[in-house]
Amino acid sequence: MPRALGQPIRNAMTIDVEDYFQVSAFAPIIARESWPSRECRVEANIERILAILESGGVHATFFTLGWIAERYPDMVRRIVAGGHELASHGYGHLRASDQTRAEFADDVGRSKALLEDIGGQAVLGYRAPSFSIGTSNLWALDVLQEAGYRYSSSIYPIAHDHYGMPDAPRFAFYPNGPDGLLEVPITTAMLGQRKLPAGGGGYFRLLPYSLSRWMMRRVNSDDGQPAIFYFHPWELDPGQPRPEGASLKTRFRHYVNLQRMEGRIKLLTRDFAWDRMDRIFLGTK
After folding, report:
1. What is the reported pLDDT for 1?
2. In this protein, which residues make up the domain named NodB homology (predicted)?
3. CA distances (Å), 58 to each of 4, 152, 269, in order?
4. 187: exposed, middle or buried (Cβ count in 10 Å: 0-12, 13-18, 19+)
5. What is the distance in angstroms between the CA of the first residue and the CA of the last residue of the chain?
6. Distances (CA, A) of 270 to 20, 89, 230, 258
7. Dihedral in degrees, nearest 10, Cα atoms 247, 248, 250, 253
8. How many Cα atoms within 13 Å fall on the side-chain side of residue 271?
């Protein structure tokens, strides 16, 4: 999107609203049937996030699970009341790649209707759990458009053992032409010929803050593009329950530097200009 002369590029601050026990990496050890009986911490963590964003004067996009919204409708309304965009993360945190076309259509349609009913605003954006739209299921973008979504942020153009579409464009594009759905990939920075993950998540917790800041600034200055940053409410919660049975790799990825995350998010709100996805990419008011 064009910007006024001398104004910094607005980057997109996004939050994937799910609780710690819904993370895909925990699926082998946490039965979906046990979710309703587990301690939910998402509401308190969202309150902390809303306070950080308000203090920094930041408006963000909250990609919210329908399962969470159904149980915490007042939390969803507080997100909307804070001037933030309400978007969909699907209903039950099922990977798009694990669903049939009909199942996916039901999931994204159900979550959109539920969020719109609770939040009282149109839901235009969607992010697939675990960035699970890629080469093998690009039909999902057609389903999203048919359901009334206008953009997706579901492709991460890197190679990863759980997700990724390395050959995808680095910046917003229309996979099916200008009349199709807009896809806004998570941000990568180039170092030589190599793409580096620069858009948040576990990489942001693992890498030094100065490196993440450098990559996002490079995307702004060298590419002239907004960065897309994401994180989860549980990443600000070092006191969360720790289920038994997770592999060493899963534990490392999930728990590394949780205690530093809140401070780093606060730094981000000061070091960059931020806004909602719909305002940056769709030009909404």
Report:
1. 44
2. 32-285
3. 19, 21, 7
4. buried
5. 14
6. 27, 27, 16, 20
7. 180
8. 16
